[in-house]
TrEMBL record:
Signal peptide interval: none
PROSITE patterns: TRBD
InterPro entries: NA-bd_OB-fold, tRNA-bd_dom, Tyrosine-tRNA_ligase_regulator
Domain TRNA-binding residues, every copy: 37-157
Pfam families associated with the record: tRNA_bind (PF01588)
Key words, A-Z: Cytoplasm, RNA-binding, tRNA-binding
Record protein name field: tRNA-binding domain-containing protein
GO molecular-function terms, A-Z: tRNA binding; tyrosine-tRNA ligase activity
Amino acid sequence: MLTTYRVSRTLPQRLNWKIAFVSKVKYTTQDASEQPLIHRLNVQIGKIVQVERHPEAEHLYVEKVDLGEVTEENTPATRTIVSGIVKYMGIDDMLVSVQWLCSRWIYINKQVLVVGNMKPSKFRGILSQGMLLAASKGDQVELLEPASGSVVGERVQVDGLDELATPDTVLKPKQKVMEQVAEDLLTSDQCVATWKDMPLKTSAGWVRCKSIQNGNIS
């Protein structure tokens, strides 16, 4: 049954990272350099369309994630993202979300939060073009998931702040922006993802994890 969720209208499996991605997201004209560091992150809603084990690293997954982007030729494109969470969840848990809709349970491709402006980096020969955000506490790890009805590609906002400023095109690793922002990313008692106690949100509602309370997010 789940093989259906691994079929996508994407470019070939080994998408060339040099292809220019064109996002449909419109950003505010505010200058992120004058705002708190979280403004510099481009956290977007992605949809996982395929997951495989890394051929050369047992602890890594290789995901294809739809961020609503197209190539310069207007061809649908996905991002390749490498994640070290094999020991925490199975492939089906990565791919599929179960939701109650129209008086019945339905299976859909899982939506996740992706830091889309990380500098691309190789993991055992495969280039990763982003990072999935997950909550963790002890030996437990769960992917963050947006509210049902969130739009693929939309930028995650902070409930309590004005619209986030235009993010960095690519985060510079030496500046450790993600690491500094992550110090204030936590889940609440209600498993809601927060930054400095303010919920992360999309156009459809708050971002959550399944069950981790007062956990770290990275």
